[in-house]
Amino acid sequence: MADSTSDPTTTPSRRAHPADASTPTTDDATSPTNDAPSPAHRRPKQPPKKRPRSPRHSPSHGLRRRLLHPLPPSPLLRRPPPSLTQVDGPPLSSSLLQSPSVYQAKSVPVPLRTKFDVPIHITAGGSVVEYEISTQDYDIGFAVTAEREEGVTNVKESARVDAVTGKFLVGSVPCALVFSFDNEYSWFREKRVSYRITVTPPRAENVVRGRRLRAKKALEVVGEDRRVVEERYERAVEKRVELEEQVKRLKKELAEKVKSLDVVVKEESWLEKRREVRDEQIKMLNQRLKNGWEDEKSEI
Predict the structure, then answer these.
(1) Which parts of the chain are coiled coil (predicted)?
(2) What CATH class does 1-20+77-202 carry?
């Protein structure tokens, strides 16, 4: 039966642990104590450490940074190469390939204005997932998503259902399948859902076939990355040779400038002393012309 009560607002959801899908277990964990240490055992407060001052960003500092990082990384270099562990997949003797895993529960309450999630972690590529969902009396929103490092994929779009079954194949792993039961639209009714989710690992021949497919795809990615690295390496070598020549030329020019500077400094010092001597001579000559000479006064 459909539940017609709905509202656009939402409330926080709760997520079930995969262990919740089986028989309930007792929680015998105890909370840690918060015994505060006595004053005699308290550590003395340490003075705050002074943060070192960052160096001034001079033009040479910026040049050094540009020389160390002359080119931005390409998208292929930003993307990590495929791991051989992911390419190999589970070993043929792994327990993951022996028997199916079943996650089930009956009459799980989903309170009004809430959402209930059942996450299941898949580590064997090629696993087949089958699910059977049913509710009591009223419908509920149901969706399946696959969460991976690169993002979230919608396996089954959200829809309001009374009962539904489905089956799909899991390709890239590891991933977390999230089976969502959404009752956020209901204002008055609690829903009860029952589910049975079966994860069947791939057969040995499928694992072998999947390994080869992943290896070929990985070889394409690694080969393309190798080509890009070779091109960037050649450009880096050319740039290094060019910069070494420029540095060599600049060092030679700098040595010549240092010699010229030394000559100019010596000339400046000599001219400064000569200027002082001339200023004193000009002063003395002006005094003689104005006041006359000492021997001339005695004669007059």
Answers:
(1) 226-260
(2) mainly beta
Contact 182, 158 (CB under 8 A): yes
What does the buried/exposed string (b/e) look like for 126-161 if buried means 16 or more CB atoms within 10 Å of the residue's CB? bbbbebebbbeebbbbbbbbbeeeeeeeebbeeeeb
Element (H, E) at 199: strand 191-200
| pLDDT, averaged in runs of 10, over the chain (300 residues) | 53 53 39 43 54 48 46 46 70 71 95 96 89 94 94 95 95 91 95 96 82 88 94 96 96 95 95 95 92 77
Q: CB-based contacts of 112: which residues, under 8 Å, 6+ apart?
A: 183, 186, 187, 188, 189, 190
- Distance, CA of 69 to CA of 59 (rounded, Å): 15
272, containing H or E segment: helix 204-291
Assign 3-class secondary structure to 137-171.
CCCEEEEEEEEECCEEEEEEEEEEECEEEEEEECC
At position 277, the amino acid (one-letter code) is V
* Separation of alpha carbons 23 and 27, rounded Å: 13
- Supply 22's token pair: 């089986």
Q: What are the sequence ranges of the domains in the chain?
A: 1-20+77-202
Cβ neighbours of residue 262 closer than 8 Å, sequence gap 6 or more:
none
Q: Are 124 and 202 in contact (CB under 8 A)?
A: yes
**Residue count (the chain):** 300
Identity of the amino acid at 50: K
